[in-house]
Hints:
- By secondary structure, this protein is of the alpha+beta class.
- It is 23% helix and 27% strand.
- It has 3 domains: 2-64, Uridine Diphospho-n-acetylenolpyruvylglucosamine Reductase, domain 2 (2-Layer Sandwich); 69-209, 2-Layer Sandwich (Uridine Diphospho-n-acetylenolpyruvylglucosamine Reductase, domain 3), CATH 3.30.465; 214-322, Alpha-Beta Complex (Uridine Diphospho-n-acetylenolpyruvylglucosamine Reductase, domain 1).
- It has 7 helices and 22 strands.
- The strands form 7 sheets. The protein has a 5-stranded antiparallel beta sheet with strand order 8-9-14-12-13, with no helix packed on it.
Amino acid sequence: MHDLTKNxxxxxxSEASEFFHFETEHDLIKILDxxxxxxxxxxxxxxxxxxxxxxxxxxxxxxxxxxxxxYSEEGNSVLLEVGAAVEWDDLIDFCCNKRxxxxxxxxxxxxxVGAAPIQNIGxxxxxxxxxxxxxxxxxxxxxxxxxIKPENCEFGYRKSMFQNASNLIxxxxxxxxxxxxxxxxxxxSLQDTSFSKAQDMIDEIRKIxxxxxxxxxxxxxxxxxFKNPIxxxxxxxSNLKLEGLKKYHLPENKVKFSAGEMLDKLSLKGMKIRNIGxxxxxxxxxxxxxxxxxxxxxxxxxxxxxxxxxHYGIQLEREPTYL
Length: 323
């Protein structure tokens, strides 16, 4: 048995009977042959910062070790291909040190580069899809490596086609970045700031994040557990239960609300059920405070969803994935 307890950010007790690392297409073909021979499916994991592990994996668990970087230039753009196993925040530091710009708003986000396009990670007014040039995947059905362009990735708010494409394993991500530092400061947390250096902006964003989120070493967590609900302006205006909540107007006559504010106004910050707590500074963050299972998390998730439906008439959508 392979203990995967330390491979997930909630520190859920978890194990797999078969666990393999891979880097190349050749590695995956060998693993795929074994899986087909044993009549088992594959389950890829990253650093477990946005996934909820079961007590025991019935599937063969695999994890990328591709930490490679490939660099080229095209006019005023920098083309950077990054291996799926690279830690996202290490990429942020690499770009800053090499004077490659664009990703500063996404500093401090946990997880790997390979997971970034799957969830279309975003923060402080920027989504990663804005800078993705391609996603390199191994297709387990066709047994070939494919480079998928962003227009075919079906990127949306915290989603992409990769979430439902079980045949695609991300090997690397290609980014089209900039040679000039042009800070994106549209988010309300950044509107009163100005930065002449990327490092200063990165430091400030990490400071803002760290003030809101618990240290995962002390309080295991997955960051924001629910997505911020987006509904039509018409539905927002007709729902009297939403009066008094902040709303953010989006294109296509849409409005976004803060799921954290909803939970906060229900006085749920700091609550604790079945060794799962809502962080006292940010109600969207669930923390593990002892022996916890995926079933316990699901119980709390359903409880919070029901509270929000009852008080606001809004169906919250979970951000992390149960494996």
